[in-house]
Amino acid sequence: MTRVLVVTSGKGGVGKTTSTAALGAALAQAGENVVVVDFDVGLRNLDLVMGAERRVVYDMINVIQGDAKLAQALIRDKRIDTLSLLPASQTRDKDSLTEEGVTKIIDQLREKFDWVICDSPAGIEKGAMMAMRHADVAVVVTNPEVSSVRDSDRIIGMLDSKTLKAERDERIDKHLLLTRYDPARAARGEMLKTEDVLEILSIPLLGIVPESVDVLNASNLGSPVTLSNPTSPAAKAYFDAARRLRGEQFDLIVPLERKSLMGRLFGRRVA
Amino acid sequence: MTETRPFIRLRGRSIMALVLTPEAPLPEWLAALDAQIERAPNFFDGRPVIADVGTLPREERDVAGLMLEIAARGIHIIGIEGAHPSWPGLEPWGRSLPGAGKAGKPIEIPESAAMPSRVAEPEPPPPPPLHSGPALAGQQSGPAHPEAPSLLVNHSVRSGQLIVFENGDITILGSVASGAEVVAGGSIHVYGALRGRAIAGLSGGAGARIYCSKLHAELVAIDGVYQTAEDMPPERIGSPSSAWLDGDQMRITPID
C-alpha cells in the first residue's frame, strides 16, 4: 500500500527540503520505490538538492494544466533507479495549484510508487495546505528553538484539521524530526531541550539530526546527504529515521559532540 | 469652524447559526421537521437559523410559503441562502447570504432537550422558587437545580486554534499552546499547561476563574480585566495556579 508522506514545518529554513531528499534517498536505497514531490511553486529547491536542476523539462504545474503527462515530468535519479523527482514550477506561483489537479497527480503517483514524499513549502497558505492534503503520514521538521516550535505546533493543528484524513475523522500519523541539533549548545543550555520540545508538541520523535556541515556540502553537490556522505552523523540519523518510518522500532541515540584531535587543537567543530 | 461628524461604531461579530436545508418533496420534509420538533421541543428555541434553499429545484413554486411554514413552527430564521433570483416573495428574509463557504459538520438533533455540550446551549430553566417556612415534602416545581452548560475539550489546543464557548465554562483535558486562545462565558479549567491566552467571564461573570496545572499564559482576562505574562507574579510561573478578580485587580494564587 502506497504511503503518502508530507514533510512540513510551518517555519522556513528548518530542513524540510534537505530532509525530503535525505529520507527519500534512504528509503530508495532500502529498496522502496520512492517519488519526491516539490510543492514549493515559484521557489523550488528540491531539484537543486537532488542534483536534477539541469534536467527539468516539465513540472507539476504543466501536468496539472495538461501540458504534459506525469511520466514526462518525472525525473529519475541517476544514482538510484527507484528514486524519482516531480519538480515544481519556478515561473508560476501557488495559485496555479488546484485541488483537483493535485488529487489526480497523487492518485497516479500512488499507482506507481511505494512512497510519495511531498516537500511542503514554509507557511500555512495554499502550497502548504496542498502538500499536506493527501498525506497518510506527516514528518514535522523542527529546530530546537522557540519560533520553530510554535510554528510546528500550528502546523500540527492544521494536520489534524485540514487534511483529507482529518476530514474523514481518521488519524494521521505525525512524527517529529528534530533537525540542526547542536550538542554543544544543548549541553550549555542554549537550545531548547529535546524533552521540552516533545512536551510542547506531543508527537513521537522520529529522529534527531545534528547540525552538520555535511548537509550544506551535500546540497552544493546536488546530492541528498544520505547518498553523498552516508557515514556522516547527519546521514546516519536520516537512515535511522527512514527505518522508523518503515515500522522498525529501536532506541534513539542523541548525537553527542565528537571532537577530533584537530578539533581539539583548533577549536570546536560541530559533530 | 470645524464640523464634528457623527461617530459611527462598526464591529465584527460572529455567531454560531444552525443551517436548515429543506429538501424536496416539501410536504414530507415539513412532516419530518414536525416529528423532530416533537421529539426535541426546545431544540430550536432562541437559536439563530439560516435556511439553505439551494437544494430545492429551480421550478419549486412556493419557496416563500415554505419559509412562512418554517417560521410558523417557531424557528427563528435570520437569513436565507442559495435562493434563486427568480423566486418571488423572499424579500422579508433578506438578500441571499454570500457564498455558502465551508459546510459545517452535520448536527444530530438529540432525542430530548438535553444538549450536546459542543453546541450553544439554550437558556437553562429558571431555578425553582425559594420556599420560606417549612419545606413542603413532595412538592417540586421544575428540576432540582439548573444544568450548568459547559464545554469539554479532551485534547490539547494547538497554536492558532480558537475555542469559544459563550454560554458557560470550558474544560480542557490537555495543554493550551502558545498562540492559542480559549474564550469562555464562564470559567476556564486547563488540566495541563496554559501557554496561550485565556479569556473568561465573557458573559459578565466577574466571579469567573481561570485554573491551570502549569501557568505559562501569555494573557489572562476575566470580565474585561486582563493581565499579560509580564505582569504575572513570577513565583506562579510554571506552577498550578488560579486567576480570579478581586474587585478590579487580577489575582493569581496557587492551587494546591
Produce a short descriptive summary:
Chain A has 271 residues and is an alpha/beta fold.
The total of helices of chain A stands at 14
Strand content of chain B: 25-35%
Give the CA-CA distance, first to last residue of chain A: 37 Å
**Main beta sheet of chain A: strand number and arrangement?**
8 strands, mixed
What's the arrangement of strands in the largest beta sheet of chain B?
4-6-8-10-13-14
The overall pLDDT of chain A, averaged over residues, is 92
Q: In terms of structural class, how would the helical and strand content of chain A be classed?
A: alpha/beta
Largest interface: A-B, 12 and 11 residues
Tell me which oligomeric state these chains represent: heterodimer
Could you explain how this protein is built, in words?
The complex is a heterodimer of chains A (271) and B (256). Chain A has 271 residues and is α/β, with parallel strands linked by helices. Chain A has helices spanning 16-29, 46-50, 60-64, 70-73, 99-112, 126-133, 146-159, 164-167, 183-187, 194-201, 213-221, 225-228, 233-245, 261-266, and strands at 3-8, 34-38, 75-76, 83-86, 115-119, 137-142, 173-181, 205-210. Chain A has an eight-stranded mixed beta sheet with strand order 3-4-2-5-1-6-7-8, with helices on both faces. Chain A is globular, with a radius of gyration of 18 Å. The model of chain A is unreliable at 267-271 (pLDDT under 50). Chain B has helices spanning 26-39, 63-72; strands spanning 18-20, 49-52, 77-81, 150-153, 162-165, 169-172, 181-184, 188-194, 197-200, 210-215, 219-222, 225-228, 241-246, 249-254. In chain B, strands 4-6-8-10-13-14 form a six-stranded mixed beta sheet, with no helix packed on it. A five-stranded mixed beta sheet of chain B has the order 5-7-9-11-12, with no helix packed on it. A three-stranded parallel beta sheet of chain B has the order 1-2-3, with helices on one face. Chain B contains two helices and 14 strands, in the order βαβαββββββββββββ. By secondary structure, chain B is mainly β. At the A-B interface, helix 7 of A face loops of B.
